[in-house]
């Protein structure tokens, strides 16, 4: 096609578009001229056969033709717009229902836990995920030789900057900024170099609790709070037990177990026939921790506890692999809807 023939074809196409009387005619002309197999795309594909010296002028003319045709179609209500079938659609019909999304199991456990502890007078405290050595280790009575301070266990950035290994630093910040009584829970993301099996991840979530008061606080108070939490989170019939343990920041310290929610304490594969599932660590706040935050250990007392959100979610919803919580597989999430 010569430039003169191209100009004649352009004039003819614009005349046809101007004369189009309905949506069907406009759509037919769109397909004829600018559709995938239309006249103009065919000319663009055939550019390789045009003499090299004529290609610039010819290509410019083809693009100008395409622009004018698209503008004319748009003015008539066509262009690359809806087909006749779409134009004739009944717009009063309801839209397609795609269904509602569901909350992630970790978000559900955090929100439910916050609501449970709120009924006991606890408020939510938050803090940064990037911490310093004092808040994350020193103030929590963690010795310098403790394995958790090693670079193979913790994500360090320099000598005094790290990704927090627990949400306990939020408790330190809260005590340093407030006077007793304090009753807070500290949910949040934490980080450790631990991907040993299906129950461990390099990042995970914790909820830690702290109660400090000038009135006497005892392990009995701690046990009553955790017993209430266990019942509200796992259902009726769940009880708690304390086992002696060691944590640098509490004294005395205990491991906290819940009766297995599957077998109700009778013994099954989930609890390894013991009837109990380890859930949390807890204890009375060590007096040396009070000293680090400026409290008089002779005048205050309190307890602290902490548990993994993933651990609760895996127990509550029967999830066997922690990695499922981070793969964002909609098929998995929808099962918990």
Structure report:
With 337 residues, the chain is an alpha+beta fold. The protein folds into two domains: 3-87; 105-334, BirA Bifunctional Protein, domain 2 (2-Layer Sandwich). It has helices at 3-19, 23-34, 39-45, 55-75, 84-87, 105-118, 133-136, 168-177, 219-234, 287-292, 309-317, 330-334; strands spanning 123-124, 130-131, 162-163, 182-191, 203-213, 240-247, 250-259, 276-285, 301-308. A seven-stranded mixed beta sheet has the order 1-4-5-9-8-7-6, sandwiched between helices. Strands 2-3 form a two-stranded antiparallel ribbon. A hairpin with a 2-residue loop joins strand 6 (240-247) and strand 7. Helix 1 (3-19) packs parallel to helix 4, helix 2 (23-34) runs antiparallel to helix 4 and helix 6 crosses helix 11 (309-317). The two termini are 63 Å apart.
Keywords:
37% helix; two-stranded antiparallel ribbon; 337 residues; elongated; alpha+beta; 7-stranded mixed sheet; BirA Bifunctional Protein, domain 2; 12 helices
Return the string of H and E elements: HHHHHHEEHEHEEHEEEHEHH
The level-1 CATH class of the largest domain: Alpha Beta
How far is the N terminus from the C terminus? 63 Å
- What count of domains describes the coordinates? 2
Overall average pLDDT: 86
The parts where pLDDT drops under 50 for at least 5 residues are 79-87
Number of alpha- plus pi-helical segments: 12
The fold-level CATH name of the largest domain is BirA Bifunctional Protein, domain 2
Strand coverage percent:
15-25%
Give the strand tally.
9
CATH arch. level architecture of the largest domain? 2-Layer Sandwich
